[in-house]
């Protein structure tokens, strides 16, 4: 495991040693927004709090935003404080979808300068497979003070992205399913297709059959093949709404290729302006 991933047994040992850890359950289902909270109430890792993607890990929708705009630093910082997160506390995020939603929390915390955060590799399934138990009692953490300043080097807005694409200064990687990228299907957004110049690498390619991340060396080989010699710092990750794209950035960090940036608005923001090109 790397600093950004933790396995189930290592997490269990840390919890048994009473380490200063905040567990955050990030389970979610785009088609059924209440499913994650219901799953949390039915059983979650001991002491975990629940983070709803729409309510806690996203901001308010606007006429020009994507489906999951970034929360304001103030709103997200207040939420983190409610969960008991503060300097010196390690955060472990998990879900049941290969880390897709947990990676959003991982990225947001790093965006606000809280680097001590990792994702449970394999999620709830790995925890149960290792013989560890869930609990149903909702956690009531002690509120803490959390403040953070956004790191401008971790994201790229739509206008800056358009400039970088025109100047060929970035490698835009779209992690949606191949059929959505090609525009053959579009189950969520009103317009199908992809951003011209983007390359496709579905996030599922980063995982093994159990929903664990591939070994760092295998991930590095995949990502470097997309870069064609360009540095990792040129990567801009996108998806449908800026959530799954964080999964690629987590995989890059695990692979020893940090420096990639997130296009938070992603496809659902790009298509808001009909003058933007579509391929």
Automatic annotation (TrEMBL):
Q: Where is the Rhodanese domain?
A: 17-136, 166-279
Gene3D superfamilies (alphabetical): Rhodanese-like domain
Pfam families in the record: Rhodanese (PF00581)
GO MF terms held by the record: thiosulfate-cyanide sulfurtransferase activity
Arranged from A to Z, the UniProt key words for this protein are:
Repeat, Transferase
Name of the protein in its database record: Rhodanese domain-containing protein
């Amino acid at each position: 495991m790397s600093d950004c991933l933790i396995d189930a047994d290592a997490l269990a040992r840390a919890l048994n040693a009473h380490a200063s850890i905040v567990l955050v359950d990030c389970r979610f289902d785009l088609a059924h927004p209440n499913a994650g909270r219901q799953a949390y109430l039915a059983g979650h890792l001991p002491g975990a709090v629940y983070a709803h993607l729409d309510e806690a890990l996203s901001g308010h929708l606007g006429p020009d935003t994507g489906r999951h705009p970034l929360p304001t630093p103030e709103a997200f910082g207040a939420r983190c404080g409610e969960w008991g997160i503060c300097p010196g506390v390690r955060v472990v995020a998990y879900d049941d979808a290969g880390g897709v939603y947990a990676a959003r929390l991982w990225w947001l915390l790093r965006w606000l300068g809280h680097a001590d955060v990792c994702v449970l590799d394999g999620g709830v399934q790995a925890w149960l497979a290792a013989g560890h138990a869930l609990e149903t009692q909702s956690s009531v953490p002690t509120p803490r003070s959390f403040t953070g300043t956004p790191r401008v080097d971790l994201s790229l807005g739509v206008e800056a992205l358009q400039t970088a694409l025109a100047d060929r200064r970035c490698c835009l990687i779209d992690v949606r399913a191949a059929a959505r990228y090609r525009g053959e299907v579009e189950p969520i957004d009103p317009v199908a297709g992809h951003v011209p110049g983007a390359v496709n690498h579905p996030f599922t390619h980063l995982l093994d059959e159990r929903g664990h991340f591939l070994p760092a060396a295998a991930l590095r080989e995949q990502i470097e093949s997309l870069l064609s010699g360009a540095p990792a710092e040129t990567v801009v990750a996108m998806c449908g709404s800026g959530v799954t794209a964080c999964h690629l950035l987590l995989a890059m960090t695990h692979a020893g290729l940090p420096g990639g940036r997130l296009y938070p608005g992603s496809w659902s923001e790009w298509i808001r302006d009909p003058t933007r090109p579509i391929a």
